[in-house]
Structures are given as C-alpha cells and as structure tokens.
Write a structure and sequence with these properties.
With 83 residues, the chain is mostly helical. It has helices at residues 2-11, 18-24, 29-35, 39-58, 67-82.
C-alpha cells in the first residue's frame, strides 16, 4: 500500500496501472491481485486505512485544555499527518 500511495500521489489515479504498483512494491501481479482484485478495491482500502489512522491520531484527548490550545494541537497533528 505504501508503494501504491507513493505512485498515486506522483502520477495520479488514471496514470498508475496495477502493473506499476506491482513493480514498485517489488512483487508480482498475481500477488497484487490476491489482495486487491481491482484498483477500486485498492483505493478504497487505502482510504479506509488513512481514515483509521487519522481517527486514531485525532482521538487524543486535550478537552480539558483551553479551546485555543486544543485547536493548535489538532491543527499541528493534522498538518504533520498529511505531510
């Protein structure tokens, strides 16, 4: 999935064939298709994984701090996460 994310960011969805993903992941096409039968399933899986990581990151509790501190905390976490 890391190889897929890297290629998708660099090339875009339509310019990233499954064969390029297999090559970047140093694996065969059959291995890719064993895990992800279509590119759509791969994209959906990447989305779900990112959302779970995002939720875990943002679930850190700072609710007892002032609102400004909470905002700064979540803002910094968001920037770091997406970079």
């Amino acid at each position: 999935m890391e190889a897929a994310i890297k290629l998708l960011v660099e090339n875009g969805l339509h310019a990233t064939p499954m064969s390029a993903l297999a090559k970047a992941a140093n694996t065969g096409m059959s291995t890719i298709y064993n895990y992800f039968s279509t590119k759509e399933i791969l994209i959906n899986t990447i989305y779900v994984v990112i959302k779970h990581k995002e939720e875990a990151l943002l679930s850190t509790s700072v609710s007892m701090r002032p609102v400004k501190t909470q905002f700064e905390h979540y803002y910094a976490l968001g920037i770091e996460f997406y970079l």
